[in-house]
Amino acid sequence: MDKVFLRSLQIPLLMLDLFLLNGLFLVTQHAIPDPVQAQWLSPRSQYWLLLNVSWAFASWLGQLYSYQHLLVFRRFLQVTCRLYLAWAFFVLVTAFLLRTTLPLAREFMYFTILSFALALLGARGFYLLLRVWVRTTGTMKRRVLILGYNKVAEKLAAYLEAEEFNVRVECIVDDVRPAAAPANHVVVPGLGEALSLARELRVTEIYSTIMPENNALVYDMMQQADQDLIRFRFVPDFATFINRPVHVDYLYELPILSIRKEPLQQVANKFAKRLFDVVISLGATLFILSWLVPLLGVLIKLESPGPILFRQLRSGLHNQPFYCLKFRSMAVNHESNTRQATRQDARVTRLGRFLRKTSLDEFPQFLNVLLGQMSIVGPRPHMLRHTLEYSSVEDQYMIRQFLKPGITGWAQVNGYRGEISTLRHIQKRVEYDLWYLENWRLSLDVKIMFRTAYNVFRGEENAY
Predict the structure, then answer these.
(1) Which of 11, 120, 229, 322 has its CA 20 to 30 A from that of 305?
(2) Which residue intervals of 381-441 are DSSP H helices?
(3) What backbone torsions phi and psi does residue 206 show, to the nearest 5 degrees?
(4) CATH numbers and ranges of domains, the chain
(5) Of 245, 438, 463, nearest to 360 (Cα)?
(6) Contact predicate 452/412, CB 8 Å
(7) Residue 321's beta-bridge partner residues?
(8) 222 neighbors 213 (Cβ within 8 angstroms)
(9) What is the distance, to the nearest Å, from the Cα of residue 213 to the centroid of all Cα atoms in its chain?
(10) Distance separating alpha carbons of residues 197 and 301, to the nearest angstrom
């Protein structure tokens, strides 16, 4: 489906869900009268605010109305179900914890929450009908003709019909009919007759996998297509030298190709991430570290001699070394800068095991964030020796250094933290870190923070 059309549905779908939520609240309010006289800060008014704010926040955090989710109906429905369950659980737990200040009848709460589930299913059914209408409406159908039969053309046809469901590939045109014709598409010989065929089939777009420098006829066809009101597009094949997606930007009229997108190269995104880091770290420093440092400092000193904080040189942004801070969790030893902590490591103190298990040992790194050496979320920094070792066995390892290292990261919340004992461990960490690099958004940082906190309370097998 057209991206602009899908994105134009994002706010209406959000507004539809909120309209249904508030409509059901009013119906329930009328069906189950409130014994407390109506006032703007009554328990039901507060509950109404909780319902709306928590659904809006959950939708934003889970990217419910994003283009990627709206594109595939099954995915949209699955995300809706997951977010609804999380939202309902949060609302019920919050209402229970605040039951003294937010006294509500159980049937009132249960009815609003359960009826919203049915309303969401109805809204998703409406969206499905809208998709079917767009697919079947002739005025919105895009008919495509592809020039050149090759691997790029095969991929293009498959991608267009899978991703853009109001597209129909009418045929592929080439000078030579292939020996084995594709199962799903017709290959018609004769590039010279492509425009006549396009007019006959009422084609709206032509995609050429043949470049003008390889066939001068393509250039003439491009000019004539404008006269026939047919959109003409080129699909270059970069697979001969880059076997991965490329991203195109423009410097005035010059196209600039890059092998990855980096949202944090944009000044606005850099500023937003840094502001987020400073606000969270300042709060953690003032309200947690201010009492945690002296408390743990006394306990660390009582258990073993040595400093309270452990300072270790690690690789930072652009591979610049910095001193990473941690609460000391080991007895002072000569291997701390060369050897990883392992399961049942004899160097780890009893208090240290608790600190490492709960990730409390990482809290001083909020100071590294305030100093600009780290970020709340990013690739975990490694010892200098390990950076050299891992970069020699994993080609893409150093790309992680385009980002500031983080207290937590996308790899860590997906289970890749702690000891690195096999090549696969570092490869998976790099894979997740590079995905984060290319897909960063502020809501993703918030999501990773919440998942990190959840994992700490749940307990992690690799935290030792």
Answers:
(1) 322
(2) 384-393, 410-413, 423-439
(3) -120, 130
(4) 3-136 (no CATH), 141-237 (3.40.50.720), 267-458 (no CATH)
(5) 463
(6) yes
(7) 315
(8) no
(9) 39
(10) 84
